[in-house]
Every structure is written in structure tokens, then in C-alpha cells.
Input
Amino acid sequence: MRTLLVALPGLVLAGIGLTHPHHLDASTAHWWRDMHVILAVIFPLLGAAQWVLLADTPKYVRYPARAAAFGYVVFYGALDALAGIGGGALAIANGGRSPSDAPIFKIGNQLGTVGAWCFFAASLAIVVCALLQDRLKAIPGAVFLTLGSYLFLSSHIYWPKGVLACVCIAVGMAGISYASASGRSVIEGSTRT
Output
């Protein structure tokens, strides 16, 4: 069940990414705004999935990596709120983009970049710990999560690169979760604190 739950946010984001307009204008403004309202719920779930995958890591890795996952949720959420919801609302009110909305997109993108790097850092911590703990079983998940997190740095969820990033993240998280779960006994998994 954990494997499915950590994969689900990336898969949902990939699906939504298929509909993400490449340009914000009067014709796309309503969906742009409404889609980012939906994304305000989904984007933080990627950080929650990282949080779950970091549960088995040593404390000296877990705490800073979870801080990075939290940074992703906060800063990427700011991008979503400003450039997504706010930008869409401004485009609706103005009948499209205008020079006056540029500062919102500028700060939103800057905050989103910080968030994406936080996501990448937490993903690398997950990957390194998974490889050290589960060795060969973790390689497929590690490759997909690293690739997806790298692509996410510059792609948001736009088709095609962003959708590919989200699918890779989903597959990578599922692979790492499965690799770590397949080595545990039922008793061991049920007595963890």
C-alpha cells in the first residue's frame, strides 16, 4: 500500500500536466487558475511521499532531508499560489497577461526554483540511503527518482518534459518503496516504532 501511496502524487501530477497550458492568456486563464487550485493540494503530497520514504534513513540524514522536503512544500507551494492561482486570476481580470503581473511571476518562479532544488536534495538523500540499504534492488527506483527530480528542476509539470519528470518521480518513489519493503518480514514491519 505504501508503494502505491508514494507513487500516486507523481502520477496525478503527470495526468494534470497533460492539460497544463503552455501559455497563459485570456483563453487559458480560467483553467490555469482552477488547475493550480487543484495543484495546491497535490504538490505538497510529493513532499509527503519524500517524508515517508525518509522514515528508514539514519537520523543525521532524515532530519535535514525532511527539512528539504518541507522547503519544497513551502517554496513550491508559493510558486503555485503566486504564478498559478494569482497569475490566472490576474489574467482573468485583465483579459490576458499584462506588464503589471510580471513581478508576481518573477517572485513566484524564484521561490519555485528554491522549492525544486529542495525537492532534488531530499530525493538525493532518499536515493543514497536506499542504495546503501537495499543495494541492487534500489537501483531502478534510484535511477528513475534521480532523473525525474533533475528534470523537475526546470520543467514544472508542462508536457512533455514535466510530465516525464512526474512519471519518473512516481516510478522512482514506487521502486524505492518496493525495494525497501521487499526485504522486511511482516513481523518486523509491524513492530516498528
